[in-house]
Amino acid sequence: MSTELSTLTGKSNFFEDFTVSDVYEHARGKTVEGLENVLITNLVLNTAQAHFNEDVAQSLEQKHRITFGGVTASIVIGLAMQDTGENAVEEVGLDQVRFRAPVLHGDTLYAFTEVLNKEDEPADSRGHKNVGLVTFRHWGVNQRGETVFEGERRVLLKKRAFVAEDLRAREEKAPATKTKPQIRRLSPPGRTSTTNAKTRVAKRARVKTKMARGSKPSQPKPRRSPR
Predict the structure, then answer these.
(1) Could you read off the pLDDT of 4-59 as tens digits, one per residue?
(2) Domain that holds residue 111
(3) Cβ–Cβ < 8 Å for 95, 77
(4) Could you write out the DSSP letters of every residue in the chain?
(5) Within a domain: 103
(6) Residue 29 sits in a domain of what CATH number?
């Protein structure tokens, strides 16, 4: 069973579908678990103990471990990706990143996006055709409505013409099917093949058997010289 990827992608998140000053409230929220914060913090070797040492964190103002900012940013941008990233061909940059309030284990985050700018013909399209550059401002809030993160993300998005053009280009570049060449195994210089070697061993074994029984191995008849 196969599934066409196009059927899983939204129909209204191409470059042409975004308008400057539009604001999106994304559908899903995400509760931050202690495991994902502590695990990722330690995997990336972040040594700030306030992210994973509860004893140390109790001496701080919030009295609890703080979620690593990289986790907070990833969650917020991830929540926005279904609406702003399904037709992305390349992430260009992430700027103006700010963490406005601490995120604690058990907090639930929600994401919002504003379209800041669009470039129909970007100066640097990174070699892609039929794409445009969009600048988004993403921000995330907790269950109390407090802003915890914001940042500006620039991304190259497909235009609607991109799909047909891309498929046509790939078909033209597809190499012709070639017949797999047959490989001949050759013996190294100075050595005979395995088959010949086995034949010699078998002959020597027969000679030794005859000698053990008292019979002499047959000798080749001498050739007479011509007179």
Answers:
(1) 656 656 677 999 999 999 999 999 999 999 999 999 999 999 999 999 999 999 99
(2) 10-162
(3) no
(4) ----GGGGS-SS-SGGG--TT-EEEEEEEEEPPHHHHHHHHHHTT---GGGT-HHHHTTSTTSSPBPPHHHHHHHHHHHHHHHHTTTEEEEEEEEEEEE-S--BTT-EEEEEEEEEEEESS-S--TT-SSEEEEEEEEEEE-TTS-EEEEEEEEEEEE-THHHHHHHHHHHHHPPPP-PPPP----PPTT---HHHHHHHHHHHHHHHHHHHTTPPPPPPPPPPPP-
(5) yes
(6) 3.10.129.10
